[in-house]
Amino acid sequence: KQVNKDASFTYSKIISIHVNLGIENVSVEIFPNPVSDVLHVGLWIPYDTELEIKVFDNNGKIVNTNLLNQFISKGKYTELLNTTQLDAGQYILQIKTSDGVIYRKFTVLR
Question: Which candidate among 1, 2, 71, 96 keeps its CA 20 to 30 Å from the CA of 104?
Answer without folding.
Answer: 71
